Amino acid sequence: MNFKAMNMFVSEESINKHLEHLRSYRLRLSILEKSLPELKGKEVWQIIRSGLGREVKEEALGLHWYIRAHECFFNSFTEAPKRSELINKYYSSRERFVYDLYLEAMKRDHGFLFVYVDRGIPKTAFVTADDRSFLKRSPVLALDLYEHTYFSDYGFSKDRFLRAALMYFDTARLDDVHLDNKG
Fold first, then answer.
1. Radius of gyration (Cα) for the chain, nearest Å?
2. pLDDT per residue over 140-171, tens digit each?
3. I want to staple 78 with a disulfide (CB 3.0 to 4.6 A). Which of 7, 10, 109, 170 is the partner?
4. Domain layout of the chain by residue ranges
């Protein structure tokens, strides 16, 4: 996780608060796996298809969702954004893509805006914690749009947070995933 890049637009205090939340969810998942050994090391699809009760599945999937979403968010930034061939091909420029993300994010609250590659095309999806469909995709980049992400640094100004964060959004990661999936 590249916290150096995140320090460019949020405070260390804010990052540490987010990491503490992530640690607590990892701990909760670990405790759940220890109490139900059949969950240990299972992939999401295995949990979905397991014979476990609905409540246990929902809890496990919710914890996986939260952990994966935040790990993706923490890995979505770089200090020196590079050009992305996929973005240039489908959006004409990084600036156009980032602007489209900005517009989409400004319409949304209380969730994550994910970027993933589907059949070689970069796509976005807005997902809330109640939506488990994200677990079936492989998002490459994420913007956490929950207020706690930016409030301590930006107050109610989500606009300022997004402008700052998107400057460091690592769109070149989409090319890496696309190339990995080709071969």
1. 17
2. 999 999 998 999 999 999 999 999 999 999 99
3. 170
4. 1-183
Residue 147 neighbours by CB distance under 10 Å? 15
Q: Are 28 and 16 in contact (CB under 8 A)?
A: no
Helix (H) or strand (E) segment spanning residue 4: helix 3-6
Q: Give the pLDDT confidence of 35-49 residue by residue, as tens digits.
A: 999 999 888 889 988
CATH-assigned architecture of domain 1-183: 3-Layer(bab) Sandwich (3.55)
Q: Which pLDDT tens digit goes with each residue over 16-38?
A: 999 999 999 999 999 999 999 99
Average pLDDT, the chain: 90
Q: What is the pLDDT of residue 165?
A: 97
Residue-wise burial string across 39-59, b where 16 or more C-beta atoms lie within 10 A, e elsewhere = beebebeebeeeebeeebbeb
Both tokens assigned to 88: 């240039």
First CA to last CA distance, the chain: 26
Question: Is residue 65 left, alpha or beta, with left meaning phi > 0 and alpha meaning psi from -120 to 50?
Answer: alpha
The encoded tokens of residue 23 equal 């640690």
Q: Name which of 92, 83, 111, 100 is nearest 174 in CA terms.
A: 83
The residues near 69 (Cβ < 8 Å, ≥ 6 apart) are 112, 114, 127, 134, 139, 142, 144
Residue type, 69: A
